[in-house]
Amino acid sequence: MATMDSIDVMGCDKLGGAGTITPEFGSHSAKNLSDVHSETSSTATSAGGEEHTISIQNAQGLTENIPHGMSNVGDPALATKFDSDGSISPLRSEMIIELQRDVEEMWPALKNAVNVIAQHCPEFMRGSQMLHGDGGPGSIRLVNFGPASGLVTYAKEEILELDDDKMILTYLLLEGDLRKDFKLFKPSISLKRVNVESEPVAANKSAETVQAKCLATWVLEYEFKEGITPPNIELINEGAKIFFRLLESSVEAQQSASSQAGAAMHQPLTNQPSTPLAV
Fold first, then answer.
1. Whether the Cβ atoms of residue 199 and residue 158 lie closer than 8 Å to each other
2. What's the rounded Cα separation, in Å, for the pair 246 and 37?
3. What is the model's pLDDT at position 150?
4. How far apart are CA 3 and CA 232, in angstroms?
5. What is the distance in angstroms between the CA of the first residue and the CA of the last residue of the chain?
6. Per-residue model confidence as pLDDT tens digits over 52-83
7. DSSP secondary-structure letter at 13?
8. What CATH number should be reported for the domain holding residue 223?
9. Is the distance from CB of 97 to CB of 241 less than 8 angstroms?
10. Is 265 part of a structural domain of the chain?
11. Is residue 24 part of a domain?
């Protein structure tokens, strides 16, 4: 089985490339060795030294600017935290990844991410099966991973939150390989619409022409089991980055296939010589 130190993506040839992804642990990006993935983070300044910013529109309609290409906010929580009653609270790791697709494309794909990725990269994900429920809160699903995932082979998860308005998905790991190390493993994924601007919008340039993107926020609440050597949580974060890149590339591949199919349907028919009617 592959490990997160070297992930084979030979099964992802439908996405336009094949190769090996080697995460750079301790950095904010995963090295890109094929056309399957784009860089997790990009340069924060242009060739002329101009800083790129991302404008986030939150639920209250307020705008917040952060540097373009920023993929992590803060360091993973490594210190033990205590609640007011003295009990140990879960650790928390947060990471933000910039995506190149619109939220209108990414959110529907995220809700069905396992099967979307499985269509284009079965070596990373095999698919999912709904064991209980209709996919909403309270539903339980079984996710099967391929050998390229490295860390896990399967996961049984309960969906805790699925909010279309806030574009947030939260689930809880019930069973799986990660349970041998984690007493609690609860990821929460949310998307936000953003506008990337490298310069002020000119008077004759409408705001709609600014390239639309979105930010994926990965928040992991976790607790390690007692009596074990804690695993490197950065390995989990790197796996999450690869997951988002595969999902983004799968969406792009689907859009490309749909466009090609549409173009083929509108191709003019070749003129064929008429056949005389039999008399």
1. no
2. 7
3. 80
4. 13
5. 71
6. 444 444 444 444 444 443 333 334 444 445 55
7. G
8. 3.30.530.20
9. yes
10. no
11. yes
- In this prediction, residue 259 carries a pLDDT of 72
Whether the CB-CB separation of 222 and 90 falls below 8 Å is answered with yes
What one-character-per-residue DSSP string does 257-274 give? HHHHHHHHHTSPPPP-PP
Surface-to-core class of residue 115, CB atoms within 10 Å of its CB (0-12 exposed, 13-18 middle, 19+ buried):
middle
For residue 270, is pLDDT > 50? yes
Q: What confidence score (pLDDT) does residue 33 get? A: 23
DSSP track, 128-160: EEEEESSSSTT-EEEEEE-GGG-S-SEEEEEEE
Q: What is the mean pLDDT of residues 203-215?
A: 60
The answer to whether residue 18 is domain-embedded is yes
Q: What is the pTM of this model?
A: 0.65
* Overall average pLDDT of the 143-150 stretch: 91
Question: What distances in angstroms separate CA 83 from CA 86, 90, 91, 119, one per listed residue?
Answer: 5, 9, 11, 43
Q: Would you say residue 2 lies in a domain?
A: no
Lowest mean pLDDT across 9-13, 156-160, 217-221: 9-13
Higher pLDDT, 110 or 38: 110
Our count of domains for the chain comes to 1
Domain that holds residue 218: 7-257
168's enclosing H/E stretch is: strand 168-176
Nearest C-alpha neighbor of 77 from the set 186, 217, 185, 234: 234
Q: Which two tokens stand for residue 171?
A: 């689930």
